[in-house]
Amino acid sequence: MADDFLDFRSHAPGYWPASAMDQWDDHKWQLKNRISGLTDLEPHLPLTDEERAGVLLAGNKLAMSITPHFFNLIDREDPDCPIRRQVIPRLEEAWTAPEELADPCGEDSHMPVPGLVHRYPDRVLFLVTDRCASYCRYCTRSRVVSGVGDQQLETQWEAAFEYLEKTPQVRDVLLSGGDPLLFSDAKLEKILSRLSAIPHIQFIRIGSRIPIFLPQRITPDLCAMLRKYHPLFISIHTNHPKELTSEVRDALGRLADTGIPLGNQSVLLRGVNDSAEVQRALVHKLLMCRVRPYYLYQCDLIKGSSHLRTSVSEGLEIIENLRGHTTGYAIPQFVIDGPGGGGKIPLNPDYVLSRTDGKTVLRNYEGETFEYPEPTRAPADALTALKDRSACCS
Ligand SMILES: *Cc1c(COP(=O)(O)O)cnc(C)c1O
Ligand code: SF4
């Protein structure tokens, strides 16, 4: 099959010494060798002045951390490289726009127990860690993630489990953070087994960017453990087709072979994936990796994100350019998380032109107009006549 999944085994170690090659596939080596400060970064990559200032200012906001695997995807000649924009801080990040919020989705005010967000009737978001393999500069939870900001994530494990045990309307638990797959297999299994022992919990999901940042972590042992907790879904997070390398595709294949349905969440980011072309390439590669695009998020109003946010109409235009033009499975739902705590609100291009006079006037993806009438019910006398006719047939 024709594809363009870069084989990073043949590129590795990239910017690292050749000796790193032996340990490249070891996720512990990847974590230990993360780029996390100016002194690690500068020998590997010529920085712009804006990036150097951004790195220096990031230290008390959201830490910088980049796995060698992900760092290798950066094009060092291109200061606007879409990979680079996601993980290397820029000066603009230190500036807060008036519309920006520390807790853009209003999560802190929907926590019955610290670390457990219960906003929707039947499901909860369980923030199990504040650490990730690498940090995204637009992280919606940058107020707590990475542990360097003013606020700390103080998940109360026992109280959270007890709340879930006595709240029968919760049938779906989404583990997130931070990145739950950063836990050891044993620690993750403790959480999964405790949750799956609760009779009203019908299924568990994990939100993770580990398959992208650290595909080496998706080991056969991890998969063998996860397999015991079906039905288990995983939502990955990827934004640009370049992130889907052969190593990532193999890791996703291992999860899919484990029987885990995979979805993807993307954030619409200026200069990263704000074009129909990039989005189309991304969703097609995701399907080849057996991942169904799930949500495309309008970027939340996170502090210091204005240089990465787009207008809402750009997102709608992208969906307009996908729907009808490509596989329905490839099209994510575009959503805005209502600022301050509204939850996910779907946005769609306007395909309904009017709904009056017992009919809906629609347009299709090519702009042609169609009318769909409301149902006409059979009149009683017509039915009586038909019944009489059936009587003479018997
Ligand atoms: C996103 C989210 C969920 C899950 O929403 P789905 O639309 O079911 O994927 C649950 N709780 C919170 C607080 C969320 O932000
Ligand atoms: S992986 Fe998710 S939680 Fe971690 S920094 Fe990125 S967006 Fe935030």
TrEMBL record:
This is L-lysine 2,3-aminomutase. Its cofactor is pyridoxal 5'-phosphate; [4Fe-4S] cluster. Belongs to the radical SAM superfamily. KamA family. PANTHER family: L-LYSINE 2,3-AMINOMUTASE (PTHR30538:SF1), LYSINE 2,3-AMINOMUTASE-RELATED (PTHR30538). SUPFAM superfamilies: Radical SAM enzymes. NCBIfam families: KamA family radical SAM protein. It holds the Pfam family Radical_SAM. Residues 118-330 form the Radical SAM core domain.
